[in-house]
Design brief:
It catalyses: beta-D-fructose 6-phosphate + ATP = beta-D-fructose 1,6-bisphosphate + ADP + H(+). It comes from Amphimedon queenslandica (Sponge). It is a single chain. The chain is of the alpha/beta class. It has 4 domains: 197 residues, Rossmann fold; 124 residues, Rossmann fold (3-Layer(aba) Sandwich); 208 residues, 3-Layer(aba) Sandwich (Rossmann fold); 117 residues, 3-Layer(aba) Sandwich (Rossmann fold), CATH 3.40.50. Helices cover 43% and strands 15% of the residues. The chain contains 30 helices and 26 strands. Strand 23 and strand 24 form a beta hairpin. Helix 6 packs across helix 7 and helix 13 packs across helix 22. The longest helix has 24 residues. The radius of gyration is 29 Å and the shape is globular. It starts with a helix and ends with a helix. The N terminus is likely disordered. Bound molecules: adenosine-5'-triphosphate (ATP), 6-O-phosphono-beta-D-fructofuranose (F6P) and magnesium ion. 6-O-phosphono-beta-D-fructofuranose binds next to loops.
């Protein structure tokens, strides 16, 4: 049992095992490396179904190529552009990809091209590439597009020989391009490619799906209706499962997990009991590739017919269709596309001669490259498994997290006390858990609470909700949470339990311990930010004095600042990033309309520069000022000069400077805006925008909802494991080990509990930032992508390669001494004073 739980806690986020061993990192730190201009040409194209985030990838490919001294080309209309050539293959400039990142779809067009499937089409494509001297290709598409690219690469030498034979190119031309190097990026909403945790567009599609589902909730609930929704994904059920986790669904039908015979009855029982428990609406999610055990398609109308005939519920069908592929890309997809585009160019740039075909993937937070054909072949095996009806194999090939997500969803929606049997047995102990929120509101908090409650009820435990943080705990604002009460919580922002910033102190520990004891709380989940972390440190200290505090306690980091140590992602920061990105889009539009404006955008985050940096990357800002990287007037002056230069050079009508709220006490948002206003007055108008509490967001993003659920699952497992091993023979929980009071974090590809006693030494408690922050490595990318490629501007290189910025935070500003600062010196000062007085007295014979 123990081993099983341990494994679950450290299980990987995604990726199939054989591919994992083939992946090599693409180091962001090497991005800045340049060689002398080599005049190597590189082309980028988008192919297959479009997806949101493709433009971010194209923009990054073009700009990183220019930065590296390569000549970028845009191929329009996918492989059709390669086959037809002419105007469809065009050398491009920096400004050709300006103001494109916020657009959905692909600005260079995509197509499904029959001709490229034939050798004759690929022969024309090769001829066109040779004429343009291009032998580096970035393909952004799905499995089909990447397969085609690989075939093209393999055939390259033969194609060129044939072209020479047919006198379509000369021997000399062929000799200049002896090989074709290709890198593939997966642009597809389906997330169906093996080897990468996420594909470009999936997160945005999830945004569209949950927006639609959130809208349906109100109308469905008003009429007490059942909605049957068709969700895209071809043969992959990823979007469907994730939508179920993010919003809730009584039943999901996906190709990888066809329902057992007689599913119609089980589904109707489930719908009925859910209604009996007070739920006013139901969702049934049907993946477009849904099938039964016999491989027979199950459609939304099949499902509706079953419900109509067996239950007579008022049922409607909604097919979301291509809406899912439309609209603006989410912050996640803009960052993913940007990072993947940059990694693709870096891979091509670093190639010494001919290289294998690679696919760029994301694993945890890292960019990696994998042999392209291994990824395609593994993905194709899923198709074969489907044909052979080997559904377990299908799930296995989708990666370890896929099956776990199905299991999570089933537990989440299994209504206890109905025909679905809860996962408890009379022999297993039943514990009393509590959950509370501490700190400022953050998206995903309620999703975490709801999932925690449901998972535990499913296993036969009791869950108490503590209202209003530690204040509420002291006052006994505690009540039982039941299954139906938390139904709709996942889609709601803020904190349903209510949250306060109160951190326990020596005085309040007594009341807290008494309250925990009187309510019989044996395990505690605290969902919150840095104050929650400080609280856990205090509770651990208090364990020596108060045995009631010796219960397992886990914190799930929930703060838009992303500054809690022990995790790479806190709940709420993705929701906040999406708000920042939307704000940037609006400000850019305003600037474009009113011509020539620069906005200084102030983000939250305390002293942590995560939101400013990632917001700048996703929002296409020119720079991001943060506390962790100190800057001086000279840096500001250069950046202002750079901005002025961009406007002077023309073709430029907007600028965004991102500034973290605490990056510097003196170089304030107003100061920066005024500096820009004065220095740029002949070229632009400067304005500021302080985003403030808007960043806490409205409805949480899909990422935050899903992460909230996963954190709840892992936290429950860890708490249970600690409880089981620290239950005394009298049945009392007495947890004293440091690992029984932890932060549950996402570290690389693992969910990992880390004791707060370890973490407190890994962060700056005064400025509330972890010592190591993974995203710092992405900062050069912000500057490179904002560079204006005008060779006349001599300061330019200086701007980009500017490593004079200190990686140290700003020295703290002198604000006068407080009593706390002086306290430690008081005893030695008193002793010294007494000694001086005695010497003085002796000398004076007093
Ligand atoms: N086996 C192949 N040989 C050559 N070209 C191919 C091959 N498979 C696909 N292509 C090319 O790639 C294009 C896109 O392929 P496909 O329609 O399978 O989409 P995809 O890239 O898999 O994207 P998605 O499935 O996400 O829409 C095809 O129209 C064709 O031009
Ligand atoms: O845009 P089309 O050609 O109708 O293709 C739809 C298919 O493309 C995708 O949107 C992306 O692969 C699938 O989810 C869907 O099955
Ligand atoms: Mg495909």
């Amino acid at each position: 049992m123990l081993r099983k739980i341990k494994m679950a806690a450290s299980m990987e986020v995604a990726s199939s095992p054989p591919l994992r061993t083939l992946s090599q990192p693409v180091e962001t730190k090497d991005l800045m490396k340049k060689k002398d201009t080599e005049d190597r040409c590189l082309a980028v194209l988008t192919s297959g179904g479009d997806s949101q985030g493709m433009n971010a990838a194209v923009r990054a490919v073009v700009r990183i190529a220019l930065f590296k001294g390569m000549k970028p080309y845009l191929v329009n209309e996918g492989y059709k552009g390669l086959v037809e050539g002419g105007e469809l293959i065009k050398e491009c400039q920096w400004t050709d990809v300006t103001h494109t990142m916020h657009k959905g779809g692909t600005i260079i067009g995509t197509a499904r091209c029959k001709e490229f499937r034939e050798r004759s089409g690929r022969l024309d494509a090769a001829a066109n590439l040779v004429k343009a001297r291009i032998n580096n290709l970035v393909i952004i598409g799905g499995d089909g597009s990447l397969t085609g690219a690989n075939i093209f690469k393999e055939e390259w030498k033969g194609l060129l020989e044939e072209l020479v034979r047919k006198e379509r190119i000369t021997q000399e031309e062929a000799a200049l391009l002896p090989y074709l190097n290709i890198v593939g990026l997966v642009g597809s909403i389906d997330n169906d490619m093996c080897g990468t945790d996420m594909t470009i567009g999936t997160d945005s599609a999830l945004h569209r799906i949950i927006e639609a589902m959130d809208c349906l909730v109100s109308t469905a609930s008003s009429h007490q209706r059942t909605f049957v929704l068709e969700i895209m994904g071809r043969n992959c059920g990823y979007l469907t499962i994730m939508a179920g986790i993010a919003v809730g669904a009584e039943w999901v039908l996906i190709p990888e997990n066809p329902p057992k015979e007689g599913w119609e009855e089980s589904m109707c029982d489930k719908l009925k009991s859910s209604r009996e428990k007070g739920r006013r609406l139901n969702f049934i999610l049907v993946a477009e590739g849904a099938i039964d055990q016999e491989n027979k398609k199950i459609t939304t109308s099949d499902v509706k017919k079953v419900i109509d005939s067996k239950l007579g519920f008022d049922t409607r069908v909604t097919v979301l269709g291509h809406v899912q592929r439309g609209g603006r890309p989410s912050a996640y997809d803009r960052i993913l596309g940007t990072r993947m585009g940059a990694a693709a160019v870096q891979t091509l740039f670093e190639a010494k001669g001919e290289m294998d075909a690679f696919m760029i993937a994301i694993r945890g937070n890292e960019m990696t490259k994998l042999p392209l054909m291994s990824c395609v072949e593994t993905t194709k095996k899923i198709g074969s498994a489907l044909n052979e009806r080997d559904f377990n194999r299908m799930q296995e090939l989708r990666g370890s997290s896929f099956a776990r997500n199905i299991k999570i969803l089933k537990k989440l929606e299994a209504c206890p006390t109905t025909t679905c049997k809860p996962e408890s047995s009379p022999s297993s102990p039943s514990y009393t858990f509590a959950v509370m929120n501490v700190g400022a509101p953050a998206g995903g908090t309620n999703s975490c609470t709801r999932s925690f409650v449901r998972f535990l009820l499913y296993s036969g435990h009791t869950v108490l909700g503590i209202y209003s943080g530690f204040d509420g705990l002291k006052e006994g604002e505690i009540k039982n949470l039941d299954w139906s009460e938390v139904s709709e919580w996942g889609s709601v922002g803020g904190s349903k339990l209510g949250t306060t910033r109160t951190v326990p102190d020596d005085k309040s520990l007594d009341a807290i311990a008494k309250s925990l004891e009187s309510h019989g709380i044996q395990g505690l989940l605290v969902v919150g930010g840095f104050e929650a972390f400080q609280s856990l440190i205090k509770l651990e200290e208090g364990r020596r004095k108060y045995p009631a505090l010796c219960i397992p306690i886990v914190q799930v980091a929930a703060t838009i600042s992303n500054n809690v140590p022990g995790t790479e992602y806190s709940l709420g920061c993705d929701t906040a990033l999406n708000v920042i990105v939307s704000a940037c889009d609006i400000l850019k539009q305003s600037a474009t309309a009113s011509r020539k404006r620069v906005f200084v955008v102030e983000t939250m985050g305390g002293y942590c520069g995560y939101l400013a940096t990632m917001g700048a990357l996703a929002g296409g800002a020119d720079s991001a000022y943060i506390f962790e990287e100190s800057f001086n007037l000279d840096h500001l002056r250069k950046d202002v000069a750079h901005m002025v230069h961009k406007f002077k050079a023309g073709n430029f009508e907007k600028g965004i400077i991102m500034r973290n709220e605490s990056c510097n006490n003196n170089y304030t948002t107003d100061f920066m805006t005024q500096m820009l206003a004065e220095e740029g007055k002949d070229y632009f108008i400067a304005r500021s925008s302080v985003l403030g509490h808007l960043q806490q967001g409205d409805a949480p993003s899909p990422f935050d909802r899903i992460l909230g659920t996963k954190y709840a699952y892992q936290s429950m497992n860890h708490l249970l494991e600690c409880m089981e091993r620290s239950t005394t023979s009298e049945g009392k929980v007495l947890a004293t080990g440091s690992d029984t009071i932890c932060v549950m974090g996402l570290v690389g590809v693992e969910y990992k509990p880390t004791p707060v006693s370890v973490l407190k030494d890994k962060c700056d408690m005064k400025y509330r930032i972890p010592n190591d922050q993974w995203w710092i490595q992405l900062r050069p990318l912000v500057r490179i992508l904002a560079r204006h490629a005008d060779k006349k501007f001599h300061g330019e290189t200086d701007m980009i390669d500017d490593d004079t910025r200190s990686k140290e935070p700003h020295p703290p500003q002198f604000k006068g001494l407080s009593m706390n600062d002086v306290k430690p010196f008081l005893p030695p000062l008193l002793v010294l004073g007494a000694m001086i007085a005695m010497t003085f007295a002796r000398l004076n014979n007093w």
